[in-house]
Design goal:
The chain has one domain. By secondary structure, it is mainly alpha-helical. The chain has nine helices and no strands. The longest helix has 22 residues, at 43-64. The two termini are 21 Å apart. The chain is globular.
C-alpha cells in the first residue's frame, strides 16, 4: 500500500476548516457501521475511510469513559480536546519530517469532494506547518489562526485546551483514545 497516499487521505476530511466550499457533512459521511475493509479502495480512499472510522471510534471511547461529563470537555465543538490529543500523541510518531515534506509537496488529489486542488494544497500546507514541532499553545494558536472561522475564538480554544491539559482525568481519558484505536 502507498502509505503516502494513505496519510494524505487521513487528513483530507477536515479540509473544510480552510474553505467555505464544503461543510462537515460533505466530508464526514455517517455510516451506521463503518467497515474497515480496504480491499477495493485506493490507498488514498483507505486513509480517508480510516479517518472516518477513527472519528466514530473516538466518540465511542470518549462516551465509554464518560469524558463529556468532565468540565470543559465538550466546549467549543470538542475542538480543544482534539487539539490536546494532538499534543498527547505527537511523540508516538517518529517521521514528522517526511510527513511535512509530503504535505508541502502533495500529488494532485482526485476526490469526489467538491473542493479545489488549491484548497487541498492549502489545507495540507497548514498541517505541515502545524506538525513542525510538538503542539503547544503557540503552535496551536498559529494553526487556528490559519482557519478563518476560528481566528476570533482562538484564545478561547487555547484557554480550554489549557484547562483540559490541567485536568488529569481528561488527560487520562484522551490518552486512552489513541491506545484503544492504535493498540
Amino acid at each position: 500500500m502507498n502509505t503516502d497516499l494513505f496519510l494524505l487521505g487521513t487528513l483530507l476530511p477536515d479540509v473544510r476548516r480552510v474553505t467555505d466550499e464544503v461543510k462537515r457533512k460533505d466530508t464526514h459521511i455517517v455510516y451506521p457501521e463503518l467497515d474497515l475493509g480496504f480491499k477495493d479502495l485506493s490507498p488514498f480512499e483507505a486513509g480517508y475511510r480510516f479517518h472516518l472510522w477513527c472519528d466514530m471510534r473516538r466518540e465511542e471511547i470518549l462516551n465509554k469513559y464518560d469524558f463529556y461529563s468532565l468540565k470543559y470537555a465538550a466546549d467549543i465543538g470538542h475542538l480543544p480536546a482534539k487539539l490536546l490529543e494532538d499534543e498527547l500523541v505527537y511523540d508516538k510518531y517518529n517521521n514528522w519530517e517526511k510527513l511535512r515534506w509530503l504535505l508541502d509537496n502533495p500529488p494532485e488529489i482526485k476526490t469526489d469532494i467538491p473542493v479545489s486542488q488549491e484548497t487541498i494544497e492549502r489545507w495540507y500546507a497548514v498541517n505541515a506547518k502545524y506538525f513542525e514541532k510538538k503542539p503547544e499553545d503557540k503552535t496551536i494558536k498559529a494553526f487556528l489562526f490559519k482557519q478563518r472561522k476560528l481566528r476570533k475564538i482562538s484564545n478561547d480554544i487555547i484557554d480550554v485546551v489549557g484547562k483540559l491539559r490541567n485536568n488529569s482525568k481528561a488527560v487520562e481519558i484522551l490518552k486512552k483514545v489513541s491506545e484503544e484505536i492504535l493498540g
